Amino acid sequence: MSQSTPNPSIERTSPGKPGAASHLKRSTSRKRAVSRWLLVLIFLATNAKAEPQPVEPKQPFFQMNAKAKLSLVEQAKTLKSGDSYQTVISRLGVPTYDQIAMRKENNHIIGRNLKYYAVKWDANLVNEIQDELVYVFLDEKHHVQSVQIKVKVEK
Q1: What's the pLDDT at 91?
Q2: Fold observed for domain 62-150
């Protein structure tokens, strides 16, 4: 009789004849256990109730009345390309945000952005879907380059 060398991937769990598969525990049982855990985790993840999404506040942080909104829009429509910063301020008033635009590489000023909010939903966040504003872009010489009006006006 020849002696067979033990297979390292097979562990004997009970005495018996060498090679009797019914009494052997294979290393694949560890893989099966990991697979079972993964299935349990996937099941739990798919069946767990999703966390409720934060609901938008029902009232905006800031909102102009309808008359003020209409006035803002009408004044913004009178702005033309090339108007000065002073003209914009005299027609629309002090902007909610006044930001200098410059290049990161050399801090060269390339323009200025003015935002006039009519409705702002959150004090610390920009909500491009629900916020209502007039956005004035000025060039490096502080002259109007373009005006975007995103305000809902009820007539």
Answers
A1: 96
A2: Beta-lactamase Inhibitory Protein; Chain:B, domain 1 (3.30.1450)
**What is d(CA 48, CA 63) in angstroms, rounded to the nearest whole number?**
39
Residue 142, number of CB atoms within 10 A of its CB: 16
Proportion of the chain above pLDDT 90, given as a percent: 48
3-state secondary structure the chain: CCCCCCCCCEEECCCCCCCCHHHEEECHHHHHHHHHHHHHHHHHHHHCCCCCCCCCCCCCCEECCHHHHHHHHHHHHCCCCCCEHHHHHHHHCCCCEEEEEECCCCCCEEEEEEEEEEEECCCCCCCCCCCEEEEEEECCCCEEEEEEEECCCCC
Sketch the domain layout of the chain as residue ranges. Answer: 10-47, 62-150
More confident residue, 29 or 81: 81
Average pLDDT, integer, range 82-96: 95
Where does the pLDDT of residue 40 fall: very low under 50, low under 70, confident under 90, or very high at 90 and above?
A: confident
